[in-house]
Amino acid sequence: MNPPIHMHDTTAQRAHPRAEIGERCWIETSKITLFARMENISLGGVFIRTATPIPDGTVLSIRWTLEEGGVDLEAKATVVWSRAIGHQGGLPAGMGLSFHPLAPALWKSIDAYVTRRLAS
């Protein structure tokens, strides 16, 4: 496995560092269920790579396993932006999710994961 790459954002809009994750997840809204891939994660949210992004403003539930053999995690989030296939700049299609307030145990799990990945 390749070492993680910290995704830098020069616009200084990010409140939390993020790390690559590459885990699969289930996303559920009141109308759909989507199986997708998480690309990077922070305490603030996650980027989901998908050819079928959910509309901005949608509230959803996301479930995933943080690491192989780990505990299943679940969080509420809102789609804050989406990008369709063929977007200018060649960036991957997907959507950015902003987590709703995280339970303390989930916050600790994500924080520990990001810290480990960025240190390696």
Structural write-up:
13% of the residues lie in helices and 38% in strands. The chain is built from 1 helix and 7 strands, in the order E-E-E-E-E-E-E-H. With 120 residues, it is mainly beta. The protein has one helix at 104-119, and strands at 19-20, 24-28, 33-41, 45-49, 59-65, 72-83, 94-99. The radius of gyration is 14 Å and the shape is globular. A 6-stranded antiparallel barrel has the order 2-3-4-7-6-5.
Quick structural gist:
With 120 residues, the protein is mostly beta strands. The protein has 1 helix and 7 strands, in the order E-E-E-E-E-E-E-H.
Biggest pleated sheet: 6 strands, antiparallel, barrel
What does the average pLDDT come to?
87
- Total strand segments: 7
In percent, how much strand structure appears in the residues? Answer: 35-45%
Structure class: mainly beta
Strand and helix map with partners:
Elements: E1 19-20, E2 24-28, E3 33-41, E4 45-49, E5 59-65, E6 72-83, E7 94-99, H1 104-119
Antiparallel strand pairs: 1-3, 2-3, 2-5, 3-4, 4-7, 5-6, 6-7
Notable traits:
120 residues; 38% strand; 1 helix; mainly beta; globular; 13% helix
